[in-house]
């Protein structure tokens, strides 16, 4: 049985997560460190958004329930695919993907999702805000990774951005009904 204290484990995990592992990837280490940190932030937001989508999916009530409920299944699958791509890319660069609930909670820039709402329209408004915030962070990271000389990561994030914008469009179309 280990004699490690929780704080010792947290400190060891933090050090391991920030250390780059050897790779033959020719992007300079200094840039890779910045890209890995940036991608871990996007990973946290995408995992957060994925969990939010499930929160909405489970708790919708009212008119249009079934249509929105089923739409969210596809949204979740698409985001989960991007979560995997982002995590794998940062590992390819020598980093450690930080996907635990504790890491996500600490690293997401998204506002906490309200758990006291149930109406379809209320969920769609809150979900649209989360999609918009995630999309803005991803678009900034497209530019940042390009400036850091990593067009592959920039391209990957462009695909993520397209999915986020497409899903946001569907959500906003539901909200514009009758306006």
Any chance you could write out the topology, listing elements then pairs?
Blueprint: H1 6-18, H2 29-59, H3 65-92, H4 101-107, H5 120-147, H6 151-175
Pfam families: Ferritin
Organism: Kushneria aurantia
Protein name: DNA starvation/stationary phase protection protein Dps
Fraction in beta strands: under 5%
Average per-residue pLDDT, rounded, comes to 91
CATH topology: Ferritin
Distance N terminus to C terminus?
A: 63 Å
Q: What is the β-strand count?
A: 0
CATH architecture: Up-down Bundle
CATH first level: Mainly Alpha
- Roughly how many Å is the radius of gyration? 18 Å
Order of helix and strand elements from N to C terminus:
HHHHHH
Q: What's the story with the biggest beta sheet? A: none
Number of helical stretches of at least 4 residues: 6
- Report the CATH superfamily: Ferritin, core subunit, four-helix bundle
Supply the helix-strand structural class.
Answer: mainly alpha
> What is the helix content?
over 70%
């Amino acid at each position: 049985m280990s004699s490690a204290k929780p704080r010792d484990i947290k400190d060891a995990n933090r050090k391991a997560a920030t250390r780059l592992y050897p790779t033959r990837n020719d992007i300079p280490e200094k840039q890779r460190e910045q890209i890995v940190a940036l991608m871990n932030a996007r990973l946290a937001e995408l995992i957060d958004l994925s969990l939010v989508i499930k929160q909405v999916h489970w708790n919708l009530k009212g008119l249009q329930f079934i249509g929105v409920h089923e739409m969210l299944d596809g949204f979740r699958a698409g985001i989960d695919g991007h979560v995997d791509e982002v995590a794998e890319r940062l590992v390819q660069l020598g980093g450690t993907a930080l996907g635990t609930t504790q890491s996500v909670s600490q690293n997401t820039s998204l506002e906490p999702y309200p758990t006291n709402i149930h109406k379809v329209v209320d969920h769609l408004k809150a979900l649209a805000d989360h999609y918009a915030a995630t999309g803005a962070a991803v678009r900034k990271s497209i530019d940042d990774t390009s400036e850091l000389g990593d067009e592959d990561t920039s391209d990957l994030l462009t695909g993520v951005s397209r999915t986020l914008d497409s899903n946001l469009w569907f959500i906003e179309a539901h909200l514009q009904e009758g306006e």
